[in-house]
Design a protein that fits this description.
single chain, little secondary structure, two-stranded parallel ribbon, 1 helix, 2 strands
């Protein structure tokens, strides 16, 4: 694994380099970094602070961002199959149209995040905080949403086929036109759920 510091990464990126497979930038300070279309497959950025960073169309397949801070980051159309975002802070992050198939988002903080049109099929979101997140038209087929807090979450037209919602909090959640065939539910806490046309 190649170890770079932030200044080296920014300098190489400014020179036109976009591919940084397997680099290590643990606990890096990348606040407001402008790194659109960067490719970081298999990289380790655990504990790094990428708040308000522009990571549009980032390739972070199988990258490790455990406990990373991505508050208000732009991650639109990101390609993150099997990315590890466990315990990451993604409050108000823009993940519209991202591919997070098979991603690990256990105990991630996704409050108020924009997850419209996101592919979260097979993703592990157990224990995640999704309060007031927008997951309209998201693909959640086979996703694990057990122990999630879905208070105020917008799941309008989301595909929840074969997903797990065990012990999830579903309060004031919008499930209009959502597909939740074959979902696994036990001990769910549901209050003021909008199920019209679901």
């Amino acid at each position: 694994m190649q170890i770079l510091d932030v200044s080296q990464l920014v300098e190489l990126y400014a020179k036109g380099e976009r591919n940084f497979p397997g680099i290590s930038l643990v606990n890096a300070n990348l606040i407001e970094a402008q790194l659109a279309e960067i490719s970081l497959p298999g990289a380790c950025l655990s504990g790094s602070n990428l708040s308000a960073a522009n990571l549009y169309r980032i390739n972070w397949v199988e990258a490790d961002l455990t406990k990373a801070i991505l508050w208000r980051s732009v991650l639109q159309n990101a390609y993150g199959v099997k990315v590890n975002l466990s315990q990451a802070i993604l409050i108000k992050a823009n993940l519209n149209g991202a591919d997070l198939h098979g991603a690990n988002l256990t105990k991630a903080d996704l409050r108020l995040a924009d997850l419209r049109n996101t592919d979260l099929s097979g993703a592990n979101l157990s224990g995640a905080d999704l309060r007031y997140a927008n997951l309209s038209n998201a693909n959640l087929v086979g996703a694990d949403l057990s122990n999630c807090n879905l208070t105020g979450t917008n799941l309008n037209q989301a595909d929840l086929w074969n997903s797990k919602l065990d012990k999830a909090i579903v309060s004031r959640t919008n499930l209009c036109d959502a597909n939740f065939s074959k979902i696994e539910i036990s001990d769910i806490e549901a209050l003021f759920v909008d199920l019209v046309k679901a």
